[in-house]
Write a structure and sequence with these properties.
Structural class: mainly beta
Radius of gyration: 20 Å
Pfam families: DUF6252 (PF19765)
Number of helices: 1
InterPro entries: DUF6252 (IPR046219)
Strand content: over 45%
Number of strands: 12
Order of helices and strands: HEEEEEEEEEEEE
Length: about 170
């Protein structure tokens, strides 16, 4: 009987120890960055943000990674920190959306269009916990082609940020 108990403990221990905790899984990650893109949910697998003291700029970035092909779709929003007021609809900011192949090869890049369809709302910059949250809708266009614009709607984020003085 002791032998069976010992085997049961070993099996249970093995099962528990071999479970993988994937922190990039959006369902268990400590951030949220998502939007609707082409009627599909664009859910980031990683995000990062910097509050740049030297340039007085807040930069918020996120990416949807495809590790099978070593490629990602990355989005960055940059805004002048002085223009941020909680819950104010901001129209003056820059954003880009790029498809990156092989870690550093940009296959295509779209830039935001300044219009009523493109806005950013910063709900909170939590200085104590170093988190920024808000919502967005952004219309992107590729200025080098006559391709269809990309519109990201219902965007929300709640991500950690770091202070920096460099670029």
């Amino acid at each position: 009987m002791r032998y069976l108990n010992f085997i049961a403990v070993v099996i249970v221990s093995f099962v528990i120890c071999s479970c993988e905790n994937n922190t990039n899984d959006p369902e268990v990650a400590d951030f949220v960055f998502k939007a609707e893109k082409d009627n599909e949910t664009w859910l980031a697998t990683r995000s990062w943000s910097y509050l740049n003291e030297k340039f007085d700029e807040l930069s918020i970035s996120a990416a949807v990674e495809d590790p099978d092909y070593y490629q990602e779709e990355a989005m960055t929003i940059k805004i002048n920190k002085a223009s941020i007021e909680p819950d104010k609809k901001l129209l003056d900011f820059d954003a880009s959306l790029a498809f990156i192949i092989g870690g550093d090869g940009v296959a295509w890049r779209y830039e935001s269009i300044k219009s009523e369809q493109t806005y950013l709302i910063i709900h909170q910059i939590d200085e104590e916990n170093k988190r920024v949250s808000g919502e967005f809708q952004i219309k992107f266009t590729d200025s080098t082609t006559d391709g269809e614009p990309i519109i990201m709607t219902d965007g929300v984020f709640n991500v950690a940020y770091e202070h920096t003085n460099t670029y």
